[in-house]
Amino acid sequence: xxxxxxxxxxxxxxxxxxxxxxxxxxxxxxxxxxxxxxxxxxxxxxxxxxxxxxxxxxxxxxxxxxxxxxxxxxxxxxxxxxxxxxxxxxxxxxxxxxxxxxxxxxxxxxxxxxxxxxxxxxxxxxxxxxxxxxxxxxxxxxxxxxxxxxxxxxxxxxxxxxxxxxxxxxxxxxxxxxxxxxxxxxxxxxxxxxxxxxxxxxxxxxxxxxxxxxxxxxxxxxxxxxxxxxxxxxxxxxxxxxxxxxxxxxxxxxxxxxxxxxxxxxxxxxxxxxxxxxxxxxxxxxxxxxxxxxxxxxxxxxxxxxxxxxxxxxxxxxxxxxxxxxxxxxxxxxxxxxxxxxxxxxxxxxxxxxxxxxxxxxxxxxx
Length: 367
Fold this sequence. Notes:
- The chain has a six-stranded parallel β-sheet, with helices on both faces. A six-stranded mixed β-sheet has the order 7-6-8-9-10-12, with helices on both faces.
- α3 runs parallel beside α11 and α8 packs across α9.
- The chain folds into two domains: 184 residues, Rossmann fold (3-Layer(aba) Sandwich), CATH 3.40.50.2300; 158 residues, Response regulator (Rossmann fold, 3-Layer(aba) Sandwich).
- The protein starts with a helix and ends in a 13-residue tail after the last helix.
- The N terminus is likely disordered.
- It is of the alpha/beta class.
Protein backbone atom coordinates (compact mmCIF):
# COMPACT_ATOMS: atom_id res chain seq x y z
CA UNK A 1 0.00 0.00 0.00
CA UNK A 2 1.43 3.42 -0.97
CA UNK A 3 2.65 5.68 1.83
CA UNK A 4 0.11 8.37 1.00
CA UNK A 5 -2.74 5.94 1.67
CA UNK A 6 -1.17 4.22 4.69
CA UNK A 7 -1.09 7.54 6.50
CA UNK A 8 -4.76 8.15 5.75
CA UNK A 9 -6.53 6.28 8.51
CA UNK A 10 -10.06 7.41 7.71
CA UNK A 11 -12.53 4.51 7.48
CA UNK A 12 -14.65 4.16 4.38
CA UNK A 13 -17.79 4.07 6.55
CA UNK A 14 -18.03 7.83 6.86
CA UNK A 15 -21.59 8.35 7.94
CA UNK A 16 -20.79 8.44 11.64
CA UNK A 17 -18.71 11.52 10.94
CA UNK A 18 -20.94 13.13 8.38
CA UNK A 19 -24.41 12.89 9.86
CA UNK A 20 -23.24 14.46 13.10
CA UNK A 21 -22.39 17.53 11.06
CA UNK A 22 -25.65 17.75 9.12
CA UNK A 23 -26.77 21.03 10.70
CA UNK A 24 -27.41 24.59 9.63
CA UNK A 25 -23.71 25.36 10.05
CA UNK A 26 -21.50 25.10 7.02
CA UNK A 27 -18.21 25.00 8.88
CA UNK A 28 -16.73 21.50 9.10
CA UNK A 29 -16.63 20.36 12.67
CA UNK A 30 -16.15 16.72 13.53
CA UNK A 31 -12.50 16.18 12.79
CA UNK A 32 -11.33 16.23 16.43
CA UNK A 33 -8.95 19.16 15.78
CA UNK A 34 -5.80 19.64 17.78
CA UNK A 35 -6.07 22.36 20.41
CA UNK A 36 -2.69 23.66 19.25
CA UNK A 37 -3.59 23.91 15.56
CA UNK A 38 -1.54 26.68 13.97
CA UNK A 39 -2.25 26.13 10.28
CA UNK A 40 -3.17 29.33 8.45
CA UNK A 41 -4.64 27.88 5.26
CA UNK A 42 -8.36 28.19 4.55
CA UNK A 43 -10.21 25.36 2.82
CA UNK A 44 -13.47 25.59 0.89
CA UNK A 45 -15.46 22.54 -0.23
CA UNK A 46 -18.19 22.81 -2.85
CA UNK A 47 -20.48 19.78 -2.66
CA UNK A 48 -22.39 18.42 -5.64
CA UNK A 49 -26.06 17.50 -5.98
CA UNK A 50 -27.12 15.14 -3.20
CA UNK A 51 -25.03 16.95 -0.60
CA UNK A 52 -24.22 15.59 2.83
CA UNK A 53 -26.00 12.36 3.63
CA UNK A 54 -25.70 10.84 0.15
CA UNK A 55 -23.83 7.91 1.75
CA UNK A 56 -21.14 8.11 -0.89
CA UNK A 57 -19.48 10.75 -3.07
CA UNK A 58 -20.19 13.99 -1.17
CA UNK A 59 -19.90 12.36 2.24
CA UNK A 60 -16.46 11.06 1.32
CA UNK A 61 -15.22 14.50 0.24
CA UNK A 62 -16.50 16.01 3.48
CA UNK A 63 -14.85 13.24 5.50
CA UNK A 64 -11.55 13.93 3.73
CA UNK A 65 -11.71 17.55 4.84
CA UNK A 66 -12.50 16.49 8.40
CA UNK A 67 -9.50 14.18 8.37
CA UNK A 68 -7.34 17.17 7.44
CA UNK A 69 -8.73 18.92 10.53
CA UNK A 70 -7.98 15.88 12.70
CA UNK A 71 -4.38 15.84 11.50
CA UNK A 72 -3.89 19.55 12.12
CA UNK A 73 -3.38 20.31 8.44
CA UNK A 74 -6.18 22.87 8.59
CA UNK A 75 -7.80 24.42 11.65
CA UNK A 76 -11.49 23.80 12.17
CA UNK A 77 -12.48 27.45 11.97
CA UNK A 78 -10.75 27.83 8.61
CA UNK A 79 -12.98 25.45 6.67
CA UNK A 80 -16.30 25.89 4.95
CA UNK A 81 -18.54 23.73 2.81
CA UNK A 82 -21.44 24.74 0.58
CA UNK A 83 -24.06 22.33 -0.71
CA UNK A 84 -25.65 22.34 -4.14
CA UNK A 85 -29.40 22.78 -4.42
CA UNK A 86 -31.52 19.85 -5.56
CA UNK A 87 -31.39 20.98 -9.18
CA UNK A 88 -27.66 21.62 -9.23
CA UNK A 89 -28.31 25.10 -10.58
CA UNK A 90 -26.12 26.94 -8.07
CA UNK A 91 -22.77 25.24 -8.69
CA UNK A 92 -21.27 28.40 -10.15
CA UNK A 93 -22.45 30.38 -7.12
CA UNK A 94 -20.85 27.85 -4.75
CA UNK A 95 -17.44 28.25 -6.37
CA UNK A 96 -17.75 32.04 -6.75
CA UNK A 97 -18.71 32.45 -3.08
CA UNK A 98 -15.72 30.45 -1.86
CA UNK A 99 -13.33 32.22 -4.23
CA UNK A 100 -14.52 35.63 -3.05
CA UNK A 101 -14.18 34.44 0.55
CA UNK A 102 -10.41 34.27 0.39
CA UNK A 103 -9.94 30.52 0.64
CA UNK A 104 -6.49 29.17 -0.21
CA UNK A 105 -7.75 25.91 -1.69
CA UNK A 106 -11.18 25.14 -3.09
CA UNK A 107 -12.32 21.66 -4.03
CA UNK A 108 -15.30 21.00 -6.28
CA UNK A 109 -16.77 17.54 -5.80
CA UNK A 110 -17.85 16.59 -9.29
CA UNK A 111 -17.15 17.10 -12.98
CA UNK A 112 -19.99 19.63 -13.23
CA UNK A 113 -17.79 22.11 -11.34
CA UNK A 114 -15.08 22.01 -14.02
CA UNK A 115 -16.31 24.82 -16.30
CA UNK A 116 -16.84 27.17 -13.35
CA UNK A 117 -13.50 26.34 -11.72
CA UNK A 118 -11.67 26.62 -15.02
CA UNK A 119 -13.09 30.10 -15.54
CA UNK A 120 -12.55 31.36 -12.00
CA UNK A 121 -9.05 29.94 -11.69
CA UNK A 122 -7.75 32.52 -14.14
CA UNK A 123 -9.42 35.31 -12.14
CA UNK A 124 -8.01 34.02 -8.84
CA UNK A 125 -4.48 32.82 -9.68
CA UNK A 126 -3.44 32.73 -6.00
CA UNK A 127 -6.13 30.18 -5.12
CA UNK A 128 -5.43 26.50 -5.73
CA UNK A 129 -8.34 24.46 -7.03
CA UNK A 130 -9.03 20.73 -7.15
CA UNK A 131 -11.92 19.14 -9.03
CA UNK A 132 -13.02 15.57 -8.40
CA UNK A 133 -13.59 14.05 -11.86
CA UNK A 134 -12.47 17.34 -13.40
CA UNK A 135 -11.42 17.70 -17.02
CA UNK A 136 -9.27 20.82 -17.36
CA UNK A 137 -6.16 18.73 -17.96
CA UNK A 138 -7.23 15.17 -18.70
CA UNK A 139 -9.55 16.11 -21.57
CA UNK A 140 -10.13 13.26 -23.99
CA UNK A 141 -8.49 10.81 -21.56
CA UNK A 142 -11.51 11.41 -19.30
CA UNK A 143 -13.89 11.05 -22.22
CA UNK A 144 -14.37 14.81 -22.50
CA UNK A 145 -14.81 15.82 -26.13
CA UNK A 146 -14.03 19.51 -25.59
CA UNK A 147 -11.01 19.56 -23.27
CA UNK A 148 -9.66 22.80 -21.89
CA UNK A 149 -5.95 23.58 -21.77
CA UNK A 150 -4.15 22.86 -18.50
CA UNK A 151 -4.56 25.60 -15.91
CA UNK A 152 -1.58 26.17 -13.57
CA UNK A 153 -3.62 26.42 -10.36
CA UNK A 154 -6.09 23.60 -11.08
CA UNK A 155 -5.53 19.90 -10.45
CA UNK A 156 -7.98 17.33 -11.79
CA UNK A 157 -8.56 14.40 -9.45
CA UNK A 158 -9.69 11.57 -11.68
CA UNK A 159 -10.26 7.87 -11.23
CA UNK A 160 -10.13 4.73 -13.34
CA UNK A 161 -13.64 3.73 -12.33
CA UNK A 162 -13.72 1.19 -15.13
CA UNK A 163 -11.16 -0.94 -13.28
CA UNK A 164 -13.18 -1.27 -10.10
CA UNK A 165 -16.39 -1.61 -12.08
CA UNK A 166 -14.87 -4.50 -14.02
CA UNK A 167 -14.17 -6.29 -10.75
CA UNK A 168 -17.68 -5.84 -9.36
CA UNK A 169 -18.96 -7.00 -12.74
CA UNK A 170 -16.96 -10.19 -12.28
CA UNK A 171 -18.47 -10.57 -8.80
CA UNK A 172 -21.98 -9.96 -10.16
CA UNK A 173 -21.59 -12.59 -12.86
CA UNK A 174 -20.22 -15.16 -10.43
CA UNK A 175 -23.08 -14.57 -7.99
CA UNK A 176 -25.63 -14.64 -10.82
CA UNK A 177 -24.32 -18.01 -11.95
CA UNK A 178 -24.57 -19.28 -8.37
CA UNK A 179 -28.21 -18.19 -8.37
CA UNK A 180 -28.96 -19.64 -11.79
CA UNK A 181 -29.71 -16.13 -13.05
CA UNK A 182 -29.02 -14.94 -16.60
CA UNK A 183 -29.70 -11.19 -16.27
CA UNK A 184 -28.09 -8.39 -14.26
CA UNK A 185 -28.54 -4.62 -14.37
CA UNK A 186 -26.74 -1.28 -14.29
CA UNK A 187 -28.28 1.94 -12.94
CA UNK A 188 -26.51 5.12 -14.01
CA UNK A 189 -27.10 8.67 -12.83
CA UNK A 190 -26.37 11.28 -15.51
CA UNK A 191 -25.66 10.08 -19.02
CA UNK A 192 -22.20 10.98 -20.30
CA UNK A 193 -18.54 9.91 -20.43
CA UNK A 194 -17.96 9.69 -16.67
CA UNK A 195 -20.75 7.27 -15.77
CA UNK A 196 -20.10 5.52 -19.06
CA UNK A 197 -16.81 4.33 -17.53
CA UNK A 198 -18.71 2.54 -14.76
CA UNK A 199 -21.11 0.94 -17.23
CA UNK A 200 -18.34 -0.12 -19.61
CA UNK A 201 -16.18 -1.71 -16.94
CA UNK A 202 -19.09 -3.48 -15.29
CA UNK A 203 -20.44 -4.88 -18.56
CA UNK A 204 -16.97 -6.10 -19.55
CA UNK A 205 -16.48 -7.77 -16.17
CA UNK A 206 -19.78 -9.61 -16.48
CA UNK A 207 -18.91 -10.74 -20.01
CA UNK A 208 -15.48 -11.92 -18.88
CA UNK A 209 -17.18 -14.57 -16.73
CA UNK A 210 -20.15 -15.35 -18.96
CA UNK A 211 -20.88 -13.43 -22.18
CA UNK A 212 -24.36 -14.92 -22.31
CA UNK A 213 -25.45 -12.98 -19.21
CA UNK A 214 -27.64 -10.05 -20.28
CA UNK A 215 -26.93 -6.61 -18.81
CA UNK A 216 -29.92 -4.27 -18.57
CA UNK A 217 -29.00 -0.57 -18.51
CA UNK A 218 -31.04 2.36 -17.22
CA UNK A 219 -30.06 5.99 -16.62
CA UNK A 220 -31.87 8.48 -14.38
CA UNK A 221 -31.44 11.49 -16.68
CA UNK A 222 -29.17 13.82 -18.60
CA UNK A 223 -28.45 16.53 -16.00
CA UNK A 224 -26.73 16.62 -12.62
CA UNK A 225 -30.07 16.38 -10.80
CA UNK A 226 -30.10 12.75 -11.96
CA UNK A 227 -27.78 12.09 -9.02
CA UNK A 228 -30.42 13.30 -6.55
CA UNK A 229 -33.56 11.35 -7.44
CA UNK A 230 -33.85 8.23 -5.26
CA UNK A 231 -37.54 7.87 -6.16
CA UNK A 232 -36.67 7.45 -9.85
CA UNK A 233 -33.72 5.29 -8.85
CA UNK A 234 -36.09 2.97 -7.02
CA UNK A 235 -38.55 2.91 -9.92
CA UNK A 236 -35.91 2.02 -12.52
CA UNK A 237 -34.39 -0.58 -10.21
CA UNK A 238 -37.78 -2.22 -9.72
CA UNK A 239 -38.23 -2.16 -13.50
CA UNK A 240 -34.97 -4.05 -14.04
CA UNK A 241 -35.68 -6.50 -11.23
CA UNK A 242 -39.12 -7.14 -12.75
CA UNK A 243 -37.44 -7.74 -16.12
CA UNK A 244 -35.35 -10.52 -14.62
CA UNK A 245 -32.25 -8.85 -13.21
CA UNK A 246 -31.12 -10.57 -10.02
CA UNK A 247 -28.29 -8.09 -9.33
CA UNK A 248 -28.04 -4.35 -10.06
CA UNK A 249 -24.93 -2.15 -9.81
CA UNK A 250 -25.46 1.59 -9.45
CA UNK A 251 -23.34 4.63 -10.21
CA UNK A 252 -26.05 7.15 -9.46
CA UNK A 253 -25.11 9.09 -6.34
CA UNK A 254 -27.99 9.69 -3.96
CA UNK A 255 -30.37 8.22 -6.56
CA UNK A 256 -28.70 4.89 -5.89
CA UNK A 257 -30.27 4.83 -2.44
CA UNK A 258 -33.49 4.04 -4.28
CA UNK A 259 -31.82 0.87 -5.56
CA UNK A 260 -31.17 -0.33 -2.02
CA UNK A 261 -34.80 0.26 -1.10
CA UNK A 262 -35.94 -1.73 -4.14
CA UNK A 263 -33.45 -4.52 -3.44
CA UNK A 264 -34.67 -4.91 0.14
CA UNK A 265 -38.32 -4.90 -0.95
CA UNK A 266 -37.76 -7.44 -3.72
CA UNK A 267 -35.12 -9.39 -1.79
CA UNK A 268 -32.69 -9.15 -4.68
CA UNK A 269 -29.04 -8.15 -4.80
CA UNK A 270 -27.48 -4.71 -5.22
CA UNK A 271 -23.94 -3.40 -5.68
CA UNK A 272 -22.92 -0.06 -4.19
CA UNK A 273 -20.46 2.61 -5.27
CA UNK A 274 -17.91 5.11 -3.92
CA UNK A 275 -18.00 4.07 -0.24
CA UNK A 276 -18.58 0.64 1.29
CA UNK A 277 -22.32 1.16 1.23
CA UNK A 278 -22.96 -2.05 3.14
CA UNK A 279 -21.80 -0.08 6.19
CA UNK A 280 -23.93 3.03 5.72
CA UNK A 281 -27.42 1.84 4.75
CA UNK A 282 -30.08 0.25 6.96
CA UNK A 283 -29.56 -3.35 8.14
CA UNK A 284 -32.48 -4.51 5.97
CA UNK A 285 -30.82 -2.96 2.92
CA UNK A 286 -27.26 -3.95 3.82
CA UNK A 287 -27.90 -7.68 3.74
CA UNK A 288 -28.68 -7.46 0.02
CA UNK A 289 -25.48 -5.60 -0.95
CA UNK A 290 -22.99 -7.96 -2.57
CA UNK A 291 -20.09 -5.50 -2.76
CA UNK A 292 -19.32 -1.85 -3.51
CA UNK A 293 -16.90 -0.31 -5.99
CA UNK A 294 -14.72 1.87 -3.76
CA UNK A 295 -13.67 5.27 -5.08
CA UNK A 296 -11.41 7.12 -2.62
CA UNK A 297 -12.80 10.61 -2.99
CA UNK A 298 -11.87 11.09 0.67
CA UNK A 299 -8.20 10.50 -0.07
CA UNK A 300 -8.24 12.77 -3.13
CA UNK A 301 -9.74 15.57 -1.04
CA UNK A 302 -7.36 15.08 1.88
CA UNK A 303 -4.27 14.86 -0.33
CA UNK A 304 -5.14 18.06 -2.16
CA UNK A 305 -5.55 19.98 1.10
CA UNK A 306 -2.31 18.55 2.44
CA UNK A 307 -0.43 19.43 -0.76
CA UNK A 308 -1.50 23.07 -0.51
CA UNK A 309 -0.54 23.15 3.17
CA UNK A 310 2.95 21.73 2.65
CA UNK A 311 3.67 23.54 -0.60
CA UNK A 312 3.71 20.47 -2.83
CA UNK A 313 0.54 21.32 -4.80
CA UNK A 314 1.07 20.81 -8.54
CA UNK A 315 -1.50 22.53 -10.70
CA UNK A 316 -1.96 21.97 -14.40
CA UNK A 317 -1.96 18.23 -13.81
CA UNK A 318 -4.32 15.29 -13.73
CA UNK A 319 -3.81 13.08 -10.69
CA UNK A 320 -5.17 9.63 -11.44
CA UNK A 321 -6.37 7.20 -8.78
CA UNK A 322 -6.57 3.55 -9.82
CA UNK A 323 -6.21 -0.04 -8.63
CA UNK A 324 -2.43 0.26 -8.56
CA UNK A 325 -2.56 3.20 -6.14
CA UNK A 326 -5.47 1.64 -4.18
CA UNK A 327 -7.50 4.73 -5.02
CA UNK A 328 -9.94 2.24 -6.58
CA UNK A 329 -10.94 -1.06 -4.98
CA UNK A 330 -13.94 -3.16 -4.00
CA UNK A 331 -15.47 -4.16 -0.67
CA UNK A 332 -15.84 -7.59 0.90
CA UNK A 333 -17.83 -6.70 4.02
CA UNK A 334 -20.92 -8.80 3.35
CA UNK A 335 -19.45 -12.27 3.80
CA UNK A 336 -22.91 -13.81 3.61
CA UNK A 337 -23.05 -12.93 -0.10
CA UNK A 338 -19.43 -12.20 -1.02
CA UNK A 339 -18.03 -15.68 -0.51
CA UNK A 340 -14.34 -16.49 -0.38
CA UNK A 341 -14.59 -18.29 -3.72
CA UNK A 342 -15.93 -15.13 -5.34
CA UNK A 343 -13.27 -12.99 -3.65
CA UNK A 344 -10.51 -15.33 -4.83
CA UNK A 345 -11.71 -15.16 -8.43
CA UNK A 346 -12.15 -11.38 -8.35
CA UNK A 347 -8.62 -11.02 -6.98
CA UNK A 348 -7.27 -13.09 -9.87
CA UNK A 349 -8.80 -10.60 -12.28
CA UNK A 350 -7.49 -7.74 -10.19
CA UNK A 351 -3.98 -9.10 -10.71
CA UNK A 352 -4.62 -9.37 -14.45
CA UNK A 353 -5.53 -5.68 -14.54
CA UNK A 354 -2.50 -4.72 -12.45
CA UNK A 355 -0.26 -6.77 -14.74
CA UNK A 356 -1.72 -5.20 -17.86
CA UNK A 357 -3.15 -8.47 -19.13
CA UNK A 358 -6.64 -6.95 -19.02
CA UNK A 359 -7.43 -3.31 -19.78
CA UNK A 360 -11.08 -2.61 -18.94
CA UNK A 361 -12.86 -0.39 -21.48
CA UNK A 362 -13.61 3.21 -20.53
CA UNK A 363 -16.67 3.67 -22.73
CA UNK A 364 -19.66 1.42 -23.47
CA UNK A 365 -19.86 -0.40 -26.78
CA UNK A 366 -21.51 1.76 -29.36
CA UNK A 367 -20.86 4.94 -27.40
